[in-house]
Amino acid sequence: MDALKYRLLLCLLLLPGGAGFAGTGTDQSVPLEKARAARIKAAFLYHFAQFSTWPEEVLGDAATPIRLCILGKDPFGSALEQLQGKTVHNRPLEIRHLPAGTSAQGCHVVFMGPMPERVLQASLAQLQHRPVLTVGEGEDFLKQGGIVRLVEEKNRVRFEINVMAARRAGLQLSARLLRLARIYEEAG
Amino acid sequence: MKLVDRCSLKTQLLLIVLWTCTVTLLLNGVLFAFYDLAQFRREKARELEVLGRVLAEHSVAPLVFQDMQAAIETLEGVRSIPAVQVAALYTADGQLFAVYRGESSATVPPRLPVHEETQGSFQYTTPVRWEGQTQGYVYLQARLLGWQERMVRYASVGGSVILLSLGVSMMLVALLQRRITRPLDHLRRVARSVAETHDYSVRVPVEGPVELRELAATFNEMLTRVQEHQAVLVAAKEAAEEMARLKSTFLANMNHEIRTPLAGILGYAQILEEELNDPMQREMAQVIKQSGQRLLDTLDALLYMSCLEAGTVRVRHQDLDVVAATRAVVDELAPLARDKKLELTVQSSEPALIACVDEGLWERLVKNLVHNAIKFTEEGSVAVLLEGDAETVQLQVADTGIGIPEELQSVIFEAFKQASSGLSRDYEGSGLGLTIVQRIVRMLNGQIYVESQPGIGSIFTVIIPRCRSDAAATRATTNGMSQQHQQA
């Protein structure tokens, strides 16, 4: 019994760290459809919230909702509607749309939609040391200080995480999430 | 007799204990092995459950993010456990999502829940729960590996335990059985010695278990009783022998005491009969003589009978010419027949017949038969016929007397019964004559028959072997020789 447990733990520990990123999808030939991609990404936003832990003080009392803010242009369209009424850590999920450039104060997860590079950098800089999970799609999003970057790869949606940025923000990301993500290593 | 019954008590005790031990231990071993197998199965099932839970825990993220590759890699973590045949992940709606096969031949159910049971393997399904929702299911299928080795180990350990136990119990039995076998052995030895030596003074030591003590005590008591009875019997036998001796002496004395005065009476009656001239007085003297004679005859028969009863008649078989002997007896009786005006004849098939008989017995036989015939015949004749062949001599006495009714022919040889006893008292006699005849015939190993018709007459036939019966056994084989001998 004990031997089995150890064996099991050992083999799970030995699993390659970047396993989530190594694979290739089974049906590569079909390109990812726009609407489906949007739906998957929207779901991922919700799951990122599920796998993250915020410091107690930013969450407030038990009734405080988890706010998911879409900064700038909303690329999801109706895909976000599937998240209506869902809960995260037993708190209601609240979705807000904010115009680009506005402060994302009070948000817990911020998706940075397409916006000018400058505005984006300003927003990121503003949120840098706050416990806000920033998600973006830009090539340099992580380099600029973002935490999670969504990547469309062939027919799948994958994600890349800047662990250092998350730590700076005071966010704790679940090891389960990290195991599936490609870890972004900051230069220097 | 069974083979087991041929063994001694000691061996049987040993066998009983060994059997009991073996059967008990085997039963124990088998039951324990079954129990252990069940335990083993339970353990394996539990391990599979734990494995399933751990896999479920690690499958949350791959299921949530629909990362099949990550899911497969998670499942492949069970590769180091050879018992697991299939590890699979299903989505919340039961669709197969990712699968790991321990064996390429293993079948994976395409949908959950699985209803059919796979023979010889365990299955375990556990939901993958995350944030209060079921994200999917982990399905595990495993074989029961290693139980054969376990059973083999069990068998070897059990075998050695049984052997060891048997050895120990054998030693213990060898030590402890003496408490039972030793008293029994004593008992057996004493019983045998009593049977062989008839010495009832020995006693068995009272020892061992209650039953054997009781047995020994009872046996001792029995010996005591037998001893007492034997003493009583010996005393009784001695007393009886003394009595018989006294009786013989008494009889001999009586014989002498009665015969002597009778001889006097008869002698003087004879003289008187000759001396007296007065016919009246002569007749009276004659009555005295006849009465005395009758008394003498009765006494004679009675004494002879009692001698026969007591077995004190000395018998000496020797070669005897029965024709001559018979003629001598018949001549003696001739006056009686003459008195009754009967024709008395002796005929023989051969001039001389040699038979191996006691002379006294033969004479008594002929005398009784002929005397009887004369006694019961009023007119006509009494004929004695002798015949002989190689084996036997036949004596026939035929008369023309009153005969014997058929219903009485079977009882006439019994002591003190005259055929005519109930009918009349016309005929003198004690009723012992034919009884004595029969005894003599028996002593001569012969046979006697009677043919009779009332009013016409009787024929008594006696057949006796020419040689004694202890020679008869050898006679059959040496038949020719004995004939030669006789001819010679």
Could you explain how this protein is built, in words?
The complex is a heterodimer of chains A (188) and B (488). Chain A has seven helices and ten strands. Chain A has helices at residues 2-13, 19-22, 34-50, 56-59, 117-127, 163-169, 175-180; strands at 52-53, 66-71, 87-88, 91-98, 109-112, 133-136, 148-153, 156-162, 172-173, 182-184. The longest helix of chain A has 17 residues, at 34-50. Chain A is globular. Chain A starts with a helix and ends with a strand. With 488 residues, chain B is α+β, with helices and mostly antiparallel strands. Helix content of chain B is 56%, strand content 17%. In chain B, a hairpin with a 4-residue loop joins strand 1 and strand 2 (96-101). In chain B, helix 6 packs antiparallel against helix 7. Mean pLDDT of chain B is 83; it is low at 470-488. Chains A and B meet through helix 1, helix 2, helix 3, strand 3 and helix 7 of A and helix 1, helix 2 and helix 3 of B.
In short:
Chain A is 32% helix and 23% strand.
What are the main properties of this structure?
heterodimer; A: 188 residues; alpha/beta; eight-stranded mixed β-sheet; two-stranded antiparallel ribbon; B: 488 residues; four-stranded antiparallel β-sheet; 11 strands; disordered C terminus
The largest β sheet of chain B comes out as: 5 strands, mixed
The number of helical segments of chain B is: 12
Strand content of chain B: 15-25%
Mean pLDDT across all amino acids of chain A: 81
Q: Can you write the helix and strand succession of chain A as a string? A: HHHEHEEEEHEEEHEHE
Shape of chain B: rod-shaped
In the sheet with the most strands of chain A, the strands line up as 3-4-2-5-6-7-8-10
How many helices of chain A does DSSP assign? 7
Radius of gyration of chain A: 17 Å
Secondary structure: helix percent of chain A = 25-40%
Rg from Cα of chain B: 56 Å
Q: Which descriptor suits the 3D outline of chain A?
A: globular
